[in-house]
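name: query_chain
kind: protein
chains: 1
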Amino acid sequence: MTGVRTDRAVAVTGVGLVTPAGVGTEETWQRICSGRPVAADDPELAGAPVTLSCRVTGFDPRKHLDGVRPWRHDKFTQFALAAAGEAVRDAALDPHGWDGARVAVVLGSAAGGVGSYEEQHHKLSTAGQRVVSPLTLPAFLPNMAAGQLAIDLGVHGPVLHTATACASGATALATAAMLLDSHACDIAVAGGSDAMVTPLCATGFARAGALSRRGDDPAGASRPFDTDRDGFVLAEGAGVLVLERAADATARRAPVRAVLAGHGSTTDAHHAVAPRPDGRCLREAVEQALARAGAARGDVDHVNAHGTGTPLNDRTEAAVLRELFGSRGPAVTSAKGVIGHTMGAAGAVEAALTVLTVQRQTVPPTANFRTPDAGTSDIDVVCEAARPCSVELAVSNSCGFGGHNVVLAFAPAATARGG
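structure:
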């Protein structure tokens, strides 16, 4: 390997996850590595054109949110608070002891509290204004997860919300890295959260032709890169990382899981929802991330793909990977086969999984990948079982409606020590 730049290395010192695969990082990782999909028929989507979803189960806000009145918050805020709490604990940080002016919060979401919006709009249209909650706006405004987290953690530094559709969580992490690089903060709590498994969102995506309609086989519905893919499965969840400058993490002897070595961001400027067919801008985002990391294409051992399971996305992304890395290049996986598409949280959830892949030197399988087509046959999609693998550099791709492309590059923790 050419060697990751240590002067810009950002240490990942904490990881927190709330996903359909589990409430907590370890539970999520084990289910992802098992390759067992969680998609199921969703009674709450009865009447929608597609009733499949990947819900977070076993989440009790009274249990998982200390000292918070959960009824005040939309589910996307609840997920973010729980994931952030785990990440901060994992980083061995005490919010009561830190300088809140030197801490930043950056959280991404595609839709904010859309579930609360739908619920309160229904009440207004069916029962009138007197039944609308006075907490409606704080519940659904997209910035409120970041704002509430700042309140809970006593953060007085930059507190930002990012909205780049399904790349929102990845954008938040890249933004946090830039804040650290500019010394605007010393600690960043960053990631993404969304809870878009709602009747309106499910209907809208279905009408757009984006969702799998394999209702007779929910577990087999999400099948990234497979020739029989027909769309994604709507999901919810949150992923949060604690980021610090590598030198600061080393100085406080923090438990470094991996290093965010580089990031790249581009925009297709092509179509509202479809990827640019030639994939040029996604390719450029990968190249930006590698250049910032001081790495070359041949250094990449693993790609955590955006891999939605839609025909256009998978074909375009596979072509980009083939062009960048050649035939049968790095080990490729997509978590969406197991947990579906967590929307604005996806970039952060998948970044967290990439961190774990680098830390544990194991690439999870892509669930439901059985038969490649002509557009996906030349990439090395890990399937059937998790693969032990030497991973010295990994990239995580995220793409979103509007043409957003964000790529994050991760390296082992030794890079934080200049190793």
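note: The mean pLDDT is 95.
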